[in-house]
């Protein structure tokens, strides 16, 4: 589509045929087939030069968020399409929450405001081998395919990130350590950053994230920045996480808090004068792609409850739930930091894994050993599963414990989110369903009197 | 008044589907037998009968039980909020092609 593009605060990383493409090349994109060749993290709003059609497109996994609302014309003027990465921006521009819609992951929304017409097309269909049997002999072939693609991805990143200040968010878990090892192989220069809650994750205690992050940084030869925060400092970041992460559910908020603390620390670090925004590489989305989630018990309660489905079946829903699961990109972006999730760039290499394979204990570690071999230290393969927001393998700490101990539970997060985004509690239940933000397949005629202020 | 044969079949199917969906929700989400508010027309999400993880379980149940694939569009269809509407949407989906 020839015309102009609305700029968004969240940076776009658009890949086609294993190279990045720039904004100037977007004018050649129009059809569903054109977009089906794209990978990356992007949220685009393209306007045709003749003022007719407008096109909104969002990356296959929905890493970058994209919302729109229709500003009603006066009768003499046509309706206008208003878009933003952040839902709350549209609220601040005077749109009612009920009049704001998401562009679903991997979809194109075409809007003809003069005709009050909208179409919704899916351009990306990810295949999931949910029902495929796990054939032992196939595993090395999957691993080889994954390794080849990861190397190709990091070669692309090597070019795309030349001259940028790069950080790897290192929790000392398998996914982030793999990213660090690949970055060590392919990138020229970068540092690792690790977060820990003061007192809850005593520095260096065996089993804690910071303990393993230190070991990994030492063994891979990577400079490490430790970011320490007192538990009582975390509540002050919660509102920022709710706005930047655009989600009120405790799992994403707890994880988002880790990244908010890292973002604040990175934003304070010296950067080259006049240089581009710093970039963080993260291990996010791997847990969705491998359905590697379990609930966590803290005190008398269970947190992060999951649908009662086997991992092979659950994966598809976890991946489609990335449509709403932002605990990184928006949070870093609000402090001027770009995010790249390497595993999310070519997800098909993981979704081709048989569902039955995911059901086996230690499936991810087994696969990772085949993919990475000795590039990842052996103690990382052997480390029990841990989440960054929990802080360690031996006891539950991290942001989960810090918030719960200070009375900020799930219902409180919902209340805060409603206040910040202008939602009625009942409206909030219409906004996210099965991990997908509310969208429309028909032209949404807005109410005649937009909310003021 | 008699009903055309094909329509009566569809009506019976929809009634069956409604019962199957209602039974699933009652059992899985522990709806109390004495809950007078629970009906085939109650908004399941807004009235708190099914939570966000529960929607996923319900979709998986519907897809398996009725051998269909629910398109994403149904998630925000107004019919996909109450049992009668869900049964109607289920009836509109073609059966999933079987893998040879």
Task: Give a quick rundown of the structure.
The complex is a heterodimer of chains A (453) and B (100). With 453 residues, chain A is α+β, with helices and mostly antiparallel strands.
List the chains of the largest interface with their residue counts. A-B, 26 and 15 residues
Mean pLDDT of chain A: 91
Inertia-based shape of chain B = globular
Total strand segments of chain B: 0
Which structural class fits the helix and strand makeup of chain A? alpha+beta
Helicity range of the residues of chain B? 40-55%
Largest sheet of chain B: none
Element pattern of chain B in H and E: HHH
β-strand percent of chain A reads 15-25%
Give the amount of beta strand of chain B, in percent: under 5%
Regions of chain A with pLDDT < 50 over 5+ consecutive residues? none
Low-pLDDT ranges of chain B: 1-10
- In percent, how helical is the residue content of chain A? 25-40%
Assembly type: heterodimer
Helix/strand structural class of chain B: mainly alpha
Terminal CA distance of chain A reads 34 Å
């Amino acid at each position: 589509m020839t015309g102009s593009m609305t700029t968004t605060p969240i940076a776009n990383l658009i890949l086609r045929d294993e190279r990045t493409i720039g904004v100037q090349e977007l004018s050649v994109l129009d059809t569903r087939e054109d977009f089906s060749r794209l990978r990356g993290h992007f949220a685009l709003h393209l306007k045709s030069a003749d003022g007719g059609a407008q096109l909104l497109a969002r990356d296959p996994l929905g890493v970058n968020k994209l919302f729109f609302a229709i500003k009603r014309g006066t009768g003499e003027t046509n309706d206008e399409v208003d878009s933003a990465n952040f839902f709350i921006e549209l609220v601040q521009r005077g749109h009612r929450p009920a009049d704001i819609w998401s562009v679903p992951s991997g979809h194109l929304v075409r809007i003809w405001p003069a005709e009050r017409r909208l179409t919704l097309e899916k351009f990306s269909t990810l295949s999931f081998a949910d029902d495929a049997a796990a054939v032992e002999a196939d595993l090395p072939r999957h691993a080889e395919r994954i390794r080849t693609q990861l190397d190709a991805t990091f070669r692309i990143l090597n070019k795309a990130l030349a001259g940028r200040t790069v950080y790897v968010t290192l929790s000392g878990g398998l996914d982030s350590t793999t990213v660090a090892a690949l970055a060590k192989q392919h990138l020229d220069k970068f540092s690792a950053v690790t977060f820990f809650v003061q007192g809850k994750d005593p520095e260096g205690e065996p089993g804690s994230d910071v303990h393993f992050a230190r070991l990994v940084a030492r063994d891979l030869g990577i400079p490490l920045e430790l970011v320490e925060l007192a538990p009582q400092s975390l509540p002050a970041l919660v509102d920022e996480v709710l706005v930047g992460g655009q989600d009120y559910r405790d799992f994403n908020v707890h994880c988002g808090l880790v990244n908010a603390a890292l973002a604040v620390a990175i934003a304070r670090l010296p950067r080259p004068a006049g240089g581009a925004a710093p970039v963080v590489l993260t291990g996010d989305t791997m847990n969705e792609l491998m359905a590697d989630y379990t609930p966590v018990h803290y005190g008398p309660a269970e947190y992060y409850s999951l649908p009662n489905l086997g991992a092979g079946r659950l994966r598809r829903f976890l991946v489609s739930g990335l449509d709403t699961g932002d605990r990184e990109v928006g949070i870093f972006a609000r402090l001027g930091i770009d995010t790249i999730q390497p595993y999310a760039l070519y997800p098909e290499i993981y979704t081709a894994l048989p569902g039955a394979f995911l059901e086996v204990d230690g499936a991810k570690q087994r696969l990772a050993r085949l993919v990475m071999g000795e590039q990842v230290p052996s103690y990382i393969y052997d480390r029990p599963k841990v989440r960054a927001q929990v802080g360690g393998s031996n006891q539950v700490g991290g942001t989960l414990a810090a918030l719960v101990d200070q009375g900020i539970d799930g219902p409180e997060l919902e209340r805060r989110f409603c206040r910040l985004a202008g939602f009625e509690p009942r409206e909030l239940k219409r906004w996210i369903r099965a991990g997908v933000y509310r969208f429309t397949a028909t032209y949404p005629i807005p109410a005649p009197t937009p909310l003021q202020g | 008044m008699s009903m055309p044969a094909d329509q009566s079949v569809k009506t019976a199917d929809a009634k069956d589907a409604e019962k199957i969906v209602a039974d699933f929700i009652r059992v899985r989400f522990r709806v109390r037998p004495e809950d007078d508010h629970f009906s085939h027309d109650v908004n399941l999400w807004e009235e708190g009968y099914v939570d966000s993880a529960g929607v996923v379980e319900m979709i998986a149940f519907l897809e398996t039980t009725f051998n269909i694939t629910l398109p994403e569009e149904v998630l925000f269809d107004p019919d996909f909020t109450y049992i009668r509407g869900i049964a109607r949407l289920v009836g509109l989906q073609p059966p999933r092609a079987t893998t040879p």
